[in-house]
Amino acid sequence: MPEDISLLTAWTPQVATTLVVLLCILAAIQDVLRFQIANAFPVALILLFLLTAALAGAWPLEALGLSAGLAAIVFVLGAGLFYAGLWGGGDVKLLAALTLWVQPASLLVFLAWVAMAGGGVALVLLAGRLLPRKIKESHKIIRNLFTTEQGNRQNIPYGLAIMIGTLIIWRGGGLGPPAGAL
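and the corresponding structure tokens:
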């Protein structure tokens, strides 16, 4: 039995991190399709963080506290962007929940990638709005992303940018349980 528990604690962080990436991809797809990110995504990320902490063994309280504190700071800063009308609430909650999973040493790099990806997504949307009307009306998704008549000309599916930043950090090894947790 102890060998089974040891195997579980060894694999839990890798499986959980893969689930984090999958949840982020699904949230980005939903954001592109609906300009909305369901609360279920950040809630699932937070619950997965807590479950992983419980299954993987005792994580140092300092590591958990640092991750939670950084997530709270990102949430407060994101809430400011929300109240300024620059971000959606789903974007704020998703980014804060993902912050739990980003290694503290990688957080600024992660946020920089998210910001750069957001600028890239915005440029693509602006360029797409120059497409001929016939192309823009050819499919519902294209129409929603590139139209200027439906009142969504300022909407940017920032979940896509958050996903890009997450994938880059994941690939670089900066996504996973808090440093010192394993």
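(Above: one complete record from the training split.) The chain has eight helices and no strands.
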